[in-house]
Design goal:
- The complex is a heterodimer of chains A (220) and B (211).
- Chain A has 220 residues and is α/β, with parallel strands linked by helices.
- Chain A contains six helices and 14 strands.
- In chain A, strands 1-14-12-9-2-3-4-5 form an eight-stranded parallel beta sheet, with helices on both faces.
- By secondary structure, chain B is α/β, with parallel strands linked by helices.
- Helices cover 16% and strands 28% of the residues of chain B.
- Chain B is globular and about 50 Å long.
- The chains are: A alpha/beta (220), B alpha/beta (211).
- Chains A and B meet through helix 4, helix 5 and helix 6 of A and helix 2 and helix 3 of B.
Chain lengths: 220, 211
């Protein structure tokens, strides 16, 4: 099936009130800023956002937070020099936070996309983040049971797509994109350029089109 | 004389075996890269999805799509590769990374690491990749001053700050000595302007001098 090429506003109209939205990017690298802007304009609220950070500066995810659309953030590293929007909301008790170690965050989404029910991870054993988690000793080492994180919608940024939705990324902007694309019921990819089918060497496709539902072209 | 930050970085760099795959944590550990010997074959990993990371980018080299874990612009070296986050942490957790270098608030005699939270009630918790790195890399090197500003030791019998990982630290590089934590005793590997006797007086952990 061919991915639907559409506008940012039309693409994000799939996001419903109360949805869990996976947002790609590591800081601003790979952050789908124009999709975030469209989501603010479109208006769905009470969202749970899963992303590595909790917004940088005043654009992208930070702007969505500032617009009051987010109930909860699931991330590994909210506190940064330029995370003043999140910091203010958190200190005012206006947003929930679930901190997840970065590798567990990625693997929990990978598990969701791969149909894995749960997995045992050694990360976090003996730390405060182990509280309330089932643990098991396997081969003499302790592990914690971690559950998948599924999204209703994933908003990611890639470099180039073909019109089927096959994606290639650029440098470290790849980060969470390929994992998030597999972990949501609907994946929307913002790309710099859409090319015709056959123009991307199949050997270099990173995210196969099966994971991608909607494409939005934003020249960079 | 105790070591400057630059001298500490030089000593850590000296102890990284040639050809190692290494992750340098945010902050002071990043400076270790400046002292790696050319031709050492050390390959730098950054958890946001790259092996073969080069020096910081300047001027026209700056590319917002190419950053390190501290979100600073960097360059790529010949032989570099990019991969997604789940792969990046799989290579860490799976024991493929030789050395990881991190800062710390405290390290215990047994090698427990505390470096992500002071546990202050008003702090916003943020762990990033520290817990994954702590238990994933084959060796974890810590770089820190041995004493806090108030003079209290940061190498302690057991950590009072929330843990990042249990028993994971193999070396502690400080401004006055290098230590190897162990189950029963901490080995003093090297000292810089301080005697073992003074270390024993100021630290509440059992020390043994390295032969």
């Amino acid at each position: 099936m061919t991915a639907t090429l559409t506008t940012a506003l039309d693409a994000v109209s799939a996001v419903k009130e109360g949805d869990t939205v996976l947002v790609g990017g590591f800081g601003m690298a790979g952050m789908p800023v124009e999709l975030m802007d469209a989501l603010i304009e479109y208006g769905a609220g009470d969202l749970t956002i899963v992303s590595n950070n909790a917004g940088n500066g005043d654009t992208g995810l930070a702007a969505l937070l500032a617009a009051g659309r987010v109930r909860k953030v699931v991330c590994s590293f909210p506190r940064q020099a330029d995370s003043w929007v999140f910091d203010g909301l958190y200190r005012a008790g206006k947003i929930e936070l679930e901190v997840v170690p970065q590798g567990n965050l990625a693997e929990r989404m990978r598990a969701a996309g791969a149909g894995i029910g749960a997995f045992f991870s050694p990360t976090g054993v003996g730390t405060p983040l182990a509280e309330g988690k089932e643990s098991r000793v396997i081969d003499g080492r302790e592990y914690l049971l971690e559950y998948p994180i599924r999204g209703d919608v994933a908003l990611i940024r890639a470099h180039i797509a073909d019109s089927m939705g096959n994606l290639v990324y650029r440098k470290t902007a790849r980060n969470f994109g390929p994992v998030m694309a597999t972990a949501a019921a609907l994946t929307i990819a913002q790309v710099s350029k859409v090319v015709e089918v056959g123009a991307i060497d199949p050997e270099v496709v990173v995210t196969p089109a099966i994971y991608v539902d909607r494409l939005v072209e934003v020249a960079r | 004389m105790s070591l400057t930050r630059e001298e500490m970085a030089r000593i850590v760099a000296r102890d990284i075996p040639d050809g190692s795959y290494v992750n340098l944590g945010i902050g002071q550990p990043t400076t270790v890269a400046d002292f790696l010997r050319p031709g050492s074959g050390v390959v730098l990993h950054t958890e946001n999805g790259m092996l073969g990371m080069g020096r910081p980018a300047v001027g026209d080299e700056i590319d917002p799509d190419l950053t390190n874990a501290g979100k600073q612009p960097v360059t790529e070296l010949p032989g570099a590769s990019y991969f997604h986050h789940a792969d990046s942490f799989a290579m860490m957790r799976g024991g493929h990374l030789d050395v990881c270098i991190m800062g710390a608030f405290q390290v215990s005699a047994g090698g427990d690491l505390a470096n992500w939270s002071t546990g202050a009630p008003d702090a916003i918790p943020a762990v990033g990749g520290a817990m994954d790195l702590a238990i994933g890399a084959k060796q974890v090197f810590v770089m820190m001053t041995l004493f806090a500003k108030d003079g209290s030791p940061k190498l302690v019998p057991s950590c009072t700050y929330p843990l990042t990982g249990r028993g994971c630290v193999s070396r502690v590089y400080t401004d006055v000595a290098t230590f190897a934590p162990g189950a029963d005793v901490v080995r003093v590997v090297e000292t810089f302007g301080i005697s073992i006797e003074e270390l024993s007086t100021r630290l509440d952990v059992p020390l043994v001098s390295s032969p």
